[in-house]
Amino acid sequence: TQVWIRDDELVWKCCEIQSTVRDDFIVKFDDDTEAKIPRQQEFHLRNKDVFSSEGLVVLDDLTQLQHLHEPALLHALQIRFDTDKIYTFTGPILIAMNPFKRIPGLYDIDKLDQVLRNPACAREPHVFAVSNYAFRGLCDTETPQTVLISGESGAGKTETTKFVMKFLALAGAGDQGVSNIEKKVLESNPVLEAFGNARTLRNDNSSR
């Protein structure tokens, strides 16, 4: 049985329970080393890796995990992050991880158009998908919609807000294109940042 146990360096470390000795478990790590841990130590069952013809299956929604706990969540997010999949759903909530680099094609006009016109793309974890959900809700119910963006300093809240505004402006414009007023609003960000942003210890361009 594979489990996650606490680790001072990695936070959580995967190992396999080999046997039991009285009140202890004998576990084996990936590097073939063994250790004895007490039964009362905190541990969690590891989800089995699922493979397809394309390789390891990476879930878009964390609620699909058989065992949903802290190490399982962190492990799933790490796998997605390593393959430049920075967005992940957990139910109706979208988790975004700041890659601190540009990912080609992630926010271009083609991606936006796919989310607008292709229902399958609109279900994939992406900030445009959340924006589309709010836009459709506004059009279908004619009631105000809210997109709540939260996170610590440097998490990417300001940039995410820009992408939401970009999507809503282009989606609302339709085939007529973005109006002059909408274009000015979108292009006003650099001016606002020049007066309202400051450098902090954790963020070179922090919105103040």
Structure notes:
One of its GO terms (cellular component) is cytoplasm. Belongs to the TRAFAC class myosin-kinesin ATPase superfamily. Myosin family. It holds the Pfam family Myosin_head. Keywords: Actin-binding, ATP-binding, Motor protein, Myosin, Nucleotide-binding. This is Myosin motor domain-containing protein. This protein has 208 residues and is α+β, with helices and mostly antiparallel strands. The chain has 2 domains: 2-47, SH3 type barrels, CATH 2.30.30; 86-207, Kinesin. Helices cover 36% and strands 23% of the residues. The chain has 7 helices and 11 strands. Helix 4 packs across helix 5 (157-173). The longest helix is centred in the last third of the chain and has 17 residues, at 157-173. The chain is elongated, with a radius of gyration of 22 Å. The model has no long low-confidence stretch (mean pLDDT 87).
